[in-house]
Design the sequence.
């Protein structure tokens, strides 16, 4: 459906935001993971045709969208990280306004989408009175107005409370069954249970593109648990990569990333997805060194 071919985006003479990313994407939810500055937002803006690649191609159904942006815009929904609402409009009026902009003339479609995001009971309230999570759900509703084949959402759960984050994740997971959903985040727990694939970015580069199960399998044998006394912990921190430490009286329970057993008494542990990604990062750093 969507082909990203060796895409580069530079700003000025010496700033490379995206450096040669290639991906082939179909239906499903793709988690685009990386720290702030990894290039996630720039890549998503190029997919949404808000900016053009410096080189390379983004091809949707055989068409280079930099040359013909209208080809994808008709079939794409976009929710930016900073999604604002018009303070004087109700949620219903807000949706009616965006429907007019997108050429959607079916009032039933608006009602259907407000029900989908669980805002139908507050449709006549001013959108400016909504919580952060409610505004994000309204943003998803407007992104879905044209029944797009591709949905691009940038850091959609940042700042939401746990209940809103769970509701939002479940909504995106449902949409991913028959659409391509690209969701950027730096919070691994937001996508570990719903993503069909994960694309890991750092410094503008694509480090990995795998299923969550494959990433977990690769990390087995690289994550260890141990219980040590506090004095030993202070020494260990200088020699091993500690993923998690929890003090328990005079002892410290540790989770450690290491390519083999780091010391006697450490036992192999089943990694979480976040631990798998950290173990991969540390391994790459040691190889580079």
Sequence:
């Amino acid at each position: 459906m969507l082909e990203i071919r060796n895409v580069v985006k530079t700003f000025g003479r010496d700033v490379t935001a995206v450096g040669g990313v290639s991906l082939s994407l179909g239906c499903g939810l793709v988690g685009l993971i990386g720290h702030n500055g990894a290039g996630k937002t720039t890549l998503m803006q190029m997919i949404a045709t808000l900016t053009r690649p410096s080189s390379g191609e983004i091809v949707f159904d055989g068409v280079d969208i930099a040359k013909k942006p209208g080809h994808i815009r008709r079939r794409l929904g976009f929710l930016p990280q900073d999604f604002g609402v018009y303070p004087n409009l109700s949620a219903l009026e807000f949706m009616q306004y965006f429907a007019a902009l997108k050429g959607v003339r079916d009032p039933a479609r608006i009602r259907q989408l407000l029900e989908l995001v669980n805002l139908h009971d507050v449709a006549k309230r001013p959108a400016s009175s909504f919580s952060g999570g409610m505004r994000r759900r309204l943003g998803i509703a407007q992104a879905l107005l044209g029944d797009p084949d591709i949905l691009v959402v940038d850091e959609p759960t940042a700042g939401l409370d746990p209940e809103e984050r769970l509701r939002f994740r479940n909504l995106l997971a449902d949409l991913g069954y028959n659409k391509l959903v690209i969701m950027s985040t730096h919070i691994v727990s937001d996508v570990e249970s719903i993503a069909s694939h994960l694309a890991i970015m750092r410094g503008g580069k694509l480090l990995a593109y795998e299923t969550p199960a494959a990433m977990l399998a690769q990390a087995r044998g690289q994550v260890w648990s141990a219980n040590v006394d506090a004095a030993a912990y202070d020494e260990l921190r200088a020699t091993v990569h500690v993923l998690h430490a929890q003090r328990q009286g005079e002892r410290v329970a540790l989770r450690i990333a290491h390519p083999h057993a780091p010391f006697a008494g450490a036992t192999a542990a089943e990694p979480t997805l976040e631990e798998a990604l950290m173990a991969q990062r540390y391994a790459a750093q040691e190889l580079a060194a």
